[in-house]
Structures are given as structure tokens and as C-alpha cells.
Amino acid sequence: MKRHVVRTICFATLVLALPAVAPAQAHRACSNAGLAGAWGYTEIGTVMSPTGAVSVAAAGIYTFDHAGKFSGRQNSSTGGKVSHDTKLGTYTVNADCTATLTLSVYDPSGTTSLRTSVWEIVLVENATKMRGIMTSLVVVAGLPAETPVPPILTMSAQRLSPSGRGKEQNASIPLRVSLVAGVPLPSNAG
């Protein structure tokens, strides 16, 4: 009887310990290659402009390469004013799945810089989703030059083609690139 109890306790301990070991073994370090591809995102929050709080929302697509650069396009609403923007930026992914995005937002032509921002993000759910918070926002157009504006914005994003992580993503999402003063800038497709 004692032998049966001891075997049962050992078996129960093993069964309870395995789920704790499996995720630790399944975790892989994140990298730029793991972020590469197309992502759909939403941003929502408030910016504290010199005249008061302004609600902001956006939805769009980012396309990340393997070398730490990305481009995107979005439809956004700032205080009820809707715009169509293009984005260009750089990113760095850390092994712990946190990352920093530094980007510039341009008008639809890709020629006029509107603002720059920095986002701190984390990749979650096996790098199929990301969450982020804007940590810096500088308005370049519409206010006195280089005006820092305190942001209270969050981002939520999901990979558009989860089966191809680390490879070229979803070729059905066109993103044309034009050259402006020798710098590639994304422009709205279609």
C-alpha cells in the first residue's frame, strides 16, 4: 500500500511539473527576423497638444524587413480630422521580445514629414501579436517646428500571415515605394 501511495505521489508530481517545463523549453529568443513581415495594427489614445487633449485613432499596415527597417500606411483620425498617412522607420528587437520602433509619418505623397514618434513594444503569443505604447511624439508640421507633444497612445497589432514568420510576408498586400530626395518613402498602394 505504501509503495502504491509513493508511486502515485511521484506520478502526480511529474504530471504537475511537466507543464512548467514545456513553456520554458518552447520559448525562443526574439529577433528582427521574427518580426519581419506584414502586420495589421490599431492605435488609440490621446495627445496633449498645447491647446488641450486631442483624441487620436488609427488603423493600418506595417511591413517589416529583416534588416531593421519598416514602412506602412494608415488611416487616422486626430480630433475628428481624418487623414491618410505613410510611415517609414527603423526597429530593433531584443532577445526578450521587447522592441523599439522609431518612425516618421508623412502625408500621402510621402514628401512632407508630419511627425516623428518612438514606440516601445512587446511581442506576445509566440510573436503573432504585439502590444505597444508611444513614448515620444514630435510634431513637425502644423505647430512650431519640432514641437514635442506628450502622447498617451497604445498600439495593438497582429501578424497578417502567421504561417510565414521570418520569411517574406503576404505578397498580396501591395506597398509601392517611391524615392524622394534619394530616400525611399512608402506611398499608398492602389
Question: Mind explaining what this structure looks like?
Answer:
This protein is of the alpha+beta class and 190 residues long. It has one domain: Porin (Beta Barrel), CATH 2.40.160. Helices cover 15% and strands 54% of the residues. It has helices spanning 2-26, 32-35; strands at 37-49, 52-64, 69-78, 81-93, 98-106, 113-124, 129-139, 147-148, 151-159, 176-180, 183-187. It has an eight-stranded antiparallel beta barrel. Strands 10-11 form a two-stranded antiparallel ribbon. A hairpin with a 6-residue loop joins strand 5 and strand 6 (113-124). The chain starts with a helix and ends with a strand. Mean pLDDT is 78; it is low at 8-25 and 163-190.
CATH topology: Porin
Taking Cα atoms only, what radius of gyration do you get, to the nearest Å? 22 Å
- How far is it from the N-terminal to the C-terminal residue, by CA? 76 Å
- Give the strand content: over 45%
Which residue ranges are poorly predicted, with pLDDT under 50 across at least 5 consecutive positions?
Answer: 8-25, 163-190
Strand elements, count: 11
- Net shape: globular
Number of helices: 2
